[in-house]
Amino acid sequence: MLLCGQLLAAVLPEERVDLLYHSYDGGGVEVTGPSLLLRKNIGNSVSVGLNHYVDNVSSASIDVVVTASPYTEKRVENSFAFDYLRDKSTMSLGLTRSSESDFDASTMALGVSQDMFGDLTTVSLGFAFGDNIIRQNGNDDFEETAQVRSYRLGISQIFTRNLVTALTLETITDAGYLNNPYRLVRYEDSTSSDGFSFQPEVYPETRTSTAISMRANYYLPQRAALRGAVRLFKDSWDIDATTYEIGYTFPYREDWIFDTRFRYHDQSSAEFYSDLFPFRDAQNFLARDKELSAFTSTSVGLSASYTLARGWSFIDRGSLNLELDWIHFDYADFRDLTEPGPVGEEPLYSFDAQVTRLFASFWF
Amino acid sequence: MPRLPQLSMLCSLLLLAGCAGEPWVKPYERAHLADSIMSFNPNPVSASYLHHVYDSREGARGAGVASGGGCGCN
Description:
The structure holds 2 protein chains of 2 kinds.
Chain A: H1 2-5, E1 16-26, E2 29-42, E3 46-59, H2 62-67, E4 71-86, E5 89-100, E6 103-116, E7 121-136, E8 139-160, E9 163-176, E10 184-188, E11 196-200, E12 206-220, E13 224-235, E14 240-252, E15 256-267, E16 295-307, E17 317-335, E18 348-363
Antiparallel strand pairs in A: 1-2, 1-18, 2-3, 3-4, 4-5, 5-6, 6-7, 7-8, 8-9, 9-12, 10-11, 12-13, 13-14, 14-15, 15-16, 16-17, 17-18
Chain B: H1 4-16, H2 31-34, H3 44-57
C-alpha cells in the first residue's frame, strides 16, 4: 500500500473519509456490508487511519449445497493505521483484527518507504505477521492456529513525464492449520449408491508463495490514463498462476470520471488437488477446494465517479462512486455434483459473480 | 507463460536505469503524473475490498494493491 500511494515525493496519505457499501453475488454466495475509512493528519508528519468493515455472508455455494447446509454469518474487521513522515522517508504501522464465529485473524504490518534519485524512485519494504485462530461451529473441542508472515519489496519508478511503473515482490509463508475444517474431498466408493463418498480434506502444515507484479500507468493526451499489470505467482503447493489487468480511465466534462477494466487470471492446481480420488486416504494430502484447482477467471469492470460541488465548510471536495465488476469462473477439473452424470464425468463447474461498490468520499 | 526469474531480472534492469544522474523528469514536469487519474490506488477502501474478493476465490495471493484479513471461505 505504501508503494502505491506515493509516486511524487514522500507524502502522507490523503485526509479523507469514505463510506462504502459492498456486495458480492455469485455461485450461491451473497456477501454484503458497509465499510468506513477515516484518514486524518496530526501535525505535518503523522497520519492516523481507522477502518471498520463488515461482511454479512449468506452461503449456499456448490461446496455447501453438496456436503453441508446453507448458512449465514457475519465477519467484522477493524484496522488502525499509523504513518510517520520524515524528510523523504515514511514509516508505517498497521494493526488489523478480523472476527467471525469460527475464524479470528490478527495482523500487524510494518513498512518503510524512501524516495530517492530526485524523487523519481520510491523503494518500499514491508513485513506483516498474522496470527489466525480457526474454530469449527458445532464442535467446541476444535481449535487450531496458523501463522502468516509476509515480506514485501516495492519499487516505483517514474520513466517519463507520462509514464510511471511499479514493481512489487512479495513472499508469504504460512504455518499451522491451513485446511478448511468443513471442506470434504470426494473419493470413489463402490459401496455407496452414488458411487462416491466424502472424507475430510488434509493439507500440508506449511506453504510458501512468491508473487511478483509489474504495473505501469501511462498518461494519454486529452487527459486519460491507460494502465496495465501482470502478476506471476508460484507456491510450494505447485500452483502457478498468471494474472493480467488492463484499464482505461477518462474524465467526461468537468465532474465525471469513468473507468473501464479487464482482468484475466489463469492458474494450475495444487499437487494434492483432485476432484475425485481413487479410494479413501489415497494419499497423505487431499484437497478438493476449487480455489486450489486449475481454472481461469475473467473480469470486466466499469466505474463512474461524480465530483460533488467543491468547498463546503471544512470539506475540500467530495465524490459519489459506483463500481461494478463481473467475474466469470471456469473450472478445468472441478465437477458440478448437483448435475447428473457418470461418476467423475459430471459437467465441469462454472459460475458468474457480480461485485458492487457504492461509496461516497470526502477530502478535508 | 513467462518465468519469474526472467521477469525479475528484466524489471530490475529497467528500474536500475533510474538510479543514474540527475532526475530527467523535473518536478515541474510531473503534472500529468500527479493527476488523480494516474494514481495506482485512488480509492483504497474499494480496492481493498476487490482485492479481498480475488484473494478469497483464487489460489494466488500477494503483490497486489492492498491486503485484507479473515477467511472468506466457501
